[in-house]
Amino acid sequence: MKKSSWILLLIFAVLAALTYFYLNKPDTTLKGDEFAIKNTAQIGKVVIWDKMKNRVTLTREDGYWQVNNKYRARKEAVDLLLETFSKLHVTAQVPRAAEERVRRSINVNGTIAEIYDTQNRPLKTLYIGDGTMGSQNTYMMQKGGKYPYEVGLPNWTGVLKPRFMLDETDWRDRAVFRYPTKDIQSVTVEYSQADKKELSFKINREGSNFSVQKLYGLPENRRPIKAKTLYFLKGFEELIAEAFETENPKRAGIVQATPFCEITLVTTKDEEKNVKFYPVPGRKIGETEKGNPIRANVDRYFVSVNNNEDFMLVQERLFGRVLAPSNFFFEKED
User: Fold this and answer.
1) Residues spanned by the domain of 300
2) Is 147 helix (H, G, I), strand (E, B) or coil?
3) Which of these, 183, 143, 160, lies nearest to 81 by C-alpha position?
4) Residue 91 forms part of a structural domain
5) What is the pLDDT of residues 90-110, one digit of tens each?
């Protein structure tokens, strides 16, 4: 081989090596926790949005978080988001050869999280992209940064983007009832079916005690058992729905039907919450001789809250405690 050929080959090898090292050169100025906000107590507001005009605003209130200044936020969802902010950790810089592709993907399909302190001053803005190869980590950038990075959480593998939800409903608190006994003035439980109507009742606060009155049939002359009354009322401390059914196509038809039961709770501040229960038919477990379906017991209800302001799905195993009959309060256990 001619000397000039050797020289050209050497030049080519050097250029290839320099190109490789340039494309894979790490950004040594970035710290591992550069994306994190260690002290999440300073966070007062988070605005999450995307280029499709989806937008959710979370604001810290006194003891809880609010969604879009309208609804109480689901505590576990907010706690998970705050924990995510505190643990964000850079695992690698995106290779230079892939930078433009990742940057473009984040710009088009990414989710933006603007984080403010309790004085409404900007703390950080994150651009959250899709998962990395194998969904081990998440592509991210931050405002003012030059490069996209692979970001994850210590001792956890997966994509972080689903934690930055853009649907208001996903953030909403699913509590149907959340009232401590001391705040309850009265509870009325009314059944609609003819064979259950006499089981309807009203509990009313009378000083430090509660009375129980049947709504239909002969009045009850016995005094209610205090322990049972308190047990029933304590059930309203936190009753959580399984899910919102806001977009359920059968919603309009369901709420026009007669409910199985209706509960009206009035607080000591004269605030009222009304909840109507509509049984969800149990699964088919057989047929009668005439071919009619035999179904399992009801284990879920659709509920309409405050004149259909909200429509939710609840589980009987949780709400059965407050769907009590009137005689529950007067009969001693064997």
Assistant:
1) 175-329
2) coil
3) 160
4) yes
5) 999 998 889 999 999 999 999
